[in-house]
Amino acid sequence: MPAARHRTGSSRIPYALAVVTTSFGFVVVQLDISVVNIALTRIGAALSTNVAGLQWVVDGYALAFAALLMAGGALGDRVGARRIFSLGMAVFTLASLGCALAVNGALLVAARAAQGIGAAMLMPCSLALLSHASNGNSALRARGVSIWTAAGAAALAAGPPLGGLLVDRFGWQSIFLLNLPIGIAAIAMAMAFLDETPVKPERPPIDIAGQALAVLVPFILTAAVIEGGTSGFGAPLVLSAFAMAAGAGVAFIAVELRARHPLLPLDLFRIPAFAVANFVGLAVNMTTYGLIFLLSFYFQQVKGYSPVVAGAAFMPFLAAVVVANVAAGPAVARYGVRLPLIVGPAVAMLGFALLLSVDAATPYASLIWRLLVLTIGTGLAVPAMTTAVLEAVPPGMAGMASGVLNTIRQTSGAIGVALFGALTSFGLVAGMHMALAISAVLTGFAAGAVMIFVTRSGEAEEPA
Fold first, then answer.
1. Which of 137, 253, 337, 444 could form a disulfide with 349 if both were Cys (CB 3.0 to 4.6 A apart)?
2. What are residue 11's phi and psi, to 5 degrees?
3. Three-class SS of residue 427?
């Protein structure tokens, strides 16, 4: 990373420090998505929580995070991204302490939801601050985004091995206490090393109806999927919940189309690059987060690994994800976003297809090389999709755009956990095979969508 500097007011802050500071935000968010998975078995035993309850431990965080991301990004655009980043980090840190102190499943889910609220505030603002620090230099921004995504990917991959070690040595509560020093350090660094972003001169009213529906839709949909795994997807309650989710979704679109200041400007999806990049994000998160949830149970319940060994089984992901993310940054800066957005999902599709033959007797060495193929594919796609979204919108909408992208990604991840967890009602290995087949198809569609976009945009650029 070159020692590039930018000027805001009288300050001169190295760009590398801005990248490191904003990356802390992505690290804590990603760490808490994955680190909890390895502790689920111990949490279930300690708090007498069944599989459905454990799905809510994961999804309570993810849903609150996803539902409020657009509001967090918009709030950062209105009052300053650094202010909202710091406030969100404080909420997240205090909620982490609440998780560690929870004495039953309900309190833990509530504290996890509070973590999600803090994450929704800090996550889009960290990306807006990173974009602002690049001072309009697109190549510098692409490299910064690659490091930012690599840091988050490393945290996502390091979560299981780190969580396994902490759970085995200090108990499940320790995975949440880990966030306290990280959060305190991030707030201090934000105050020292980040310049405040420019704020919009006008402050339109918040779209309360749109925000309420944005919370309601993913909550009802996830509840329906989780309950479907327990009661059956044909149960009247489950079908009613799906119908309610669909109705709320239609109402959300209607409200946003009529709102003077919508929570989600639907016109953004008329920008082809923005729409396609968000679909890639949907495919990557739904499949990856769902698979991580299943693998945590596969390693401990099917293979019989202890938390430490199960966590260590995820270790090769760390190197593969980080290398792929870092490699994607220079590639995006030099060649643009299109090639990584095609190759990444296509390689991920191959990885999911290769995993279809995995069963209870599959040796670890045979499993891990297939997982590495998958990880390389998703690692290539994430920096490209993030850069594509930032480049597709005006600079003043960076917070909103990143909020939309991450809302779609986190909602998809929560639904992936709910859906893939529900499939275990057919047996863990059989359910995993179904999940892998769904994942291969979805990532294949994502690669195909990018190819169609590239073909059509290429035709549009040809002279008449």
1. 444
2. -90, 150
3. coil
